[in-house]
Design goal:
With about 450 residues, the chain is mostly helical. The protein has one domain. It has helices at about 5-10, 20-35, 35-45, 55-80, 95-105, 110-130, 135-140, 140-165, 185-200, 205-225, 250-255, 260-290, 305-320, 330-335, 340-355, 360, 365-370, 370-380, 390-405, 410-430, 435-455, and strands at about 90, 165-170, 175, 325. The strands form two sheets. The chain has a two-stranded antiparallel sheet with strand order 1-4. Strand 2 and strand 3 form a beta hairpin. Helix 4 (about 55-80) runs antiparallel to helix 13 and helix 8 runs antiparallel to helix 20 (about 410-430). The longest helix has 30 residues, at about 260-290. The N and C termini lie far apart (about 60 Å). The relative contact order is 0.21. Pfam families: Xan_ur_permease.
């Protein structure tokens, strides 16, 4: 039996109406669509993760390796355990929450933040193993679940606009339009953004990574041509290749000591909540493309792909990256005909192959990387169509969830606002009996926490 026949038999390709060639093309398509995360995740996390004795460029390479390894491990589990054509990697939004809210905002050491991701992953494994997914889902208001993706998208959009210096600080209005065309950094970012949106609108495979790389190449070309000095639109210096990740891997162990219990529980809760429902929503959405859903609109054996997510998150924390989740870009491969875990196997193999390109990651300017945040942020806003804006409880809960994430610069605060608002409005319209006891309890606990924290009694 040849390799092709062995792969076809292992993943039961024929019975799924596919073939090895189609699965391989689908895997390549999915990888190209989501490979931007290898560049973007290190750019975001390096704002928070600083390791003594190592330059930012070296840390970026370490995180890039952790990104690749966690993506490969999680996607291999998806392939062999779940036999589904879905790719996984550290999720956008969750890495922003890790860097900008938890570490830079709350002042939590990055090692402790990794410990929170590890704990969240372990909890996810346990809950998935006992089949508690549906029970947990029922504890959270439907409008929050439907709007959380759009809220994260708006948060990413805001971060991306700031990093590209399209949006700038203002003493009077807090934010304003930046001096875009007086700033080479912003000019290249805007032009790269336009290119990426055009490619995406025309359904070009790998539009985001093509936009990022093209923008980076343009920056280097202008530098080498003498238009800009080194350090203006390109890194001032490049580090040597850094494949030793021991300063990063295992750092979560140190983060388990000296933690503030209340803050740690809130961080774990938010990581868990967003990862849990983001993954579930992505799986359902991608499954619609492949006609994987049953007559009730559920994905059969959904606990298996959820377990891949959980294992990836736990392993990712060990090697040094934020929460791993299923990527909506998997739909690109499904549209190409991917129907089995062989597609995921190809994605995972390509992630491992990309390790040879790690030194290139440090050469990509930040403005090129942050293009991805804006594009993905806009894409995620599509989730707002699932909100029933005519229902007061839905409108208030979803509206607060979406808007407070960027305005408070915190995914956690947006989630909390939506969860607390839902039972209040339900009671106001005489529908309090439709709210579960668990929803009242969680809302009360969150309300108490925010009263005490904003009054300065706790962190």
């Amino acid at each position: 039996m040849g390799l092709t026949d062995a792969l076809a038999a292992r993943f039961d390709v024929e019975s799924h109406g596919s073939d090895v060639r189609t699965e391989a093309i689908a895997g390549l398509t999915t990888f190209l669509a989501m490979s931007y995360i290898i560049v973007v995740n290190p750019t975001i996390l390096s704002n928070a993760i600083q390791i003594e004795g190592y330059s930012q460029g070296e840390v970026i390479q370490m995180i890039a390796i952790a990104t690749v390894l966690s993506s490969a491990v999680a996607t291999f589990v998806m392939a062999f355990y779940a036999n589904r054509p879905f790719g996984l990697a550290p999720g956008l939004g969750l890495n922003a929450f890790f860097a900008f809210t938890v570490v830079l905002g709350l002042g939590v050491p990055w090692q402790t933040a990794l410990a929170a991701v590890f704990v969240e992953g372990v909890l996810f494994i346990l809950l998935t193993a006992v089949g508690a997914r549906e029970y947990v889902i029922r504890l959270f208001p439907e409008p929050v679940k439907r709007s959380v993706g759009a809220g994260i998208g708006l948060f990413l959009l805001f971060i991306g606009l700031q990093e590209l210096q399209i949006v700038a600080n203002d003493e009077t209005t807090l934010v304003t339009l930046g001096s875009v065309f007086g700033n080479p950094w912003a000019i290249l970012g805007v032009l790269g953004l336009v290119l990426t949106f055009v490619l995406w609108a025309r359904n070009v495979t790998g539009a985001i990574i093509l936009g990022v790389l093209t923008t980076a190449v343009a920056g280097w070309a202008l530098t080498f041509a003498g238009v800009f000095a080194r350090g203006t639109v390109t890194p001032e210096s490049l580090p040597s290749a850094q494949y030793d990740i021991t300063p990063l891997a295992g750092a979560f162990v140190d983060g388990l000591s000296g933690i503030d219990p209340v803050t740690f529980v809130l961080v774990v809760f938010t990581f868990f909540f967003v990862d849990f429902f983001d993954t579930a929503g992505t799986l359902i959405g991608v499954s619609q493309f492949g006609d994987f859903l049953d007559e009730d609109g559920d994905l059969p054996d959904m606990d298996r792909p959820l377990m891949a997510d959980a294992v990836g998150t736990t392993f990712g924390a060990v090697v040094g990256t934020s929460t791993v989740t299923t990527f909506i870009e998997s739909s690109a491969g499904v549209e190409e005909g991917g129907r089995t875990g062989l597609t995921a196997f190809v994605v995972a193999a390509l992630f491992l192959a990309s390790l040879v390109l790690i030194p290139v990651v440090a050469a990509i300017p930040e403005y090129a990387s942050f293009i991805a945040l804006i594009v993905v942020g806009v894409m995620m806003l599509q989730g707002l169509v699932e909100v029933d804006w005519q229902d007061p409880a839905w409108a208030v809960s979803a509206g607060l969830t979406v808007t407070l994430m960027p305005f408070a610069y915190s995914i956690a605060d947006g989630l909390a606002a939506g969860i607390v608002a839902y039972p209040i409005i339900k009671l106001a319209v005489g529908e309090g009996d439709e709210v579960a006891l668990g929803q009242y309890l969680i809302a009360a606990l969150l309300a108490a926490y925010y009263v005490l924290s904003t009054a300065g009694y706790i962190l």
